[in-house]
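G., before I forget:
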Amino acid sequence: MRELRELQTDFQNYLLQQNLSIAFDIVDTTTVPVMTRLNIYRDAYYLRLIEVLQQDYPVLQALLGEEQFEQACRNYIDQHPSQYKSVRWFGIKFSDFLQDDAKAPYLVEAAKFEWLLTESFDAADASSVTVEIMQTIPFNQWPEMRFKLHPSFRTLMLDWNVVSIWKSFKEGKKMISPQRLKQPASWIIWRKNHDTQFCSMPASEMFMLHAMANGASFAEICEGLYEWIDEQQIATQTAILLKKYILDNLISEII
Amino acid sequence: MTNFTNNKRLPYLGFGLGLRPDHYEAILKQKPKIDWFEIITENYLVPGGKPIYYLDEIRKDYPIVMHGVSLSIGSTDPLDLNYLKQVKLLAERIEAKWISDHLCWTGVNNLNMHDLLPLPYTKNTIKHVVAQIHRVQDYLGRQILIENVSSYLTYQQSEMTEWEFLTEIAEQADCFILLDVNNIYVSALNHGFDSQEFLNGVPSLRVQQIHLAGHSNHGDYIIDTHDAPVIQPVWDLYAAALKKFGAVSTMIERDDNIPELKELLVEIEHARYIANEVLIGETAIA
């Protein structure tokens, strides 16, 4: 199959780098010249992938403006040709690419946020623990309880107001200007009843959620929360938080 | 190598539509008169969430067939078994009536151009593609359908017509054909062949499904964009195809500028009307 292999490699090299070797293998016609025919494929290659990135990163596009966004896409396509069977994963490295390309930090953060929304959107399904299930667990077993968070759970730390920007864009309002926050904010993203949710979290709750994700027991979580919560209140307050996460469908299993 | 030959088509499904997220809610609420849906396989090779939820819900009311865009059956890269495994699992989950993909390649050296790239119509390519289809069918445990793609160039190396190439592969690999009537129309104009000759060259028993779609006409050439209604010459070609092949499960394929569901229902009814006109007195049409 050497001949077909070479032909396919040459064709692909035209799409990727405009390498002209393939042109000699294409039949020329008077109505449509070889280069027009080849460029139908090359143009379609870029347009299709740009469209995919537009769908994944609408807010980033609005922030960059159409022209700059398209240029960023073209550079990304050139540097990261797809290795994925599904085009759904093509944009996975876009925020890293923007960072390497020394783009403004709020652009990188906006891209990260938008990508995590897509990840959460079609992450694996899982059942949710209910308050009723929680109530069936005897109190003497509570210290040893461990938790599995919903597979759609994602976290990120933001230095910029990209979530406010995202909201203003989605609500069709005038887009808020990028601003550095007074202090970095932690955000969680997850899915509730098939809809993607996000919410900023105080440090104590981020500690608790990360501890749960890392397999810590209820007792270990309570111990860690001493940093933020009064010792007398710790078990009650931790139980209240746990109930809140359960109601938000964040917990898929109690082990 | 599994022997599937029984000289029979798979069950006739009637008139279907490409399932797109824009229509999920309308389908569940309205339960429209559509006989079946075709999904883009890769869009549902995800762990969960809304795509899988809606697919499962719609499957409760409608038969589903799977249509892939990344099998890359003509590529000289080895087949991706992990991908095939996911396809097989999805087919089992939704009890897919059949699985199709395109007679093309999408990339080499582990890259995916996400386009349906044309193959040279040679005996060597036939040998290669037939062996690949045998491997896929053995793995999936069922016959697949391969679709003729729209193309915009011809290789110097080609030794035969597209329909000879397609037919030879379907016969040797013992697979079915998904005949895209719009693609025949598009390629006929782009390469200057007669669409009817294409239809005449394809064996009836191999044709399991028909695609109908719209395209963009650029004057000297046509691009298969699936972003517009089916045009009259393509409806005419569809009628000619039914005369040749008899009742074949048919669907409307729209991938861009997706209109409201009701607009596509009009096109489905039009296909049903044409089939009734053409096949009157033949196989009952659902």
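The radius of gyration of chain A is 25 Å. The longest helix of chain A spans residues 34-56.

More on Monday.
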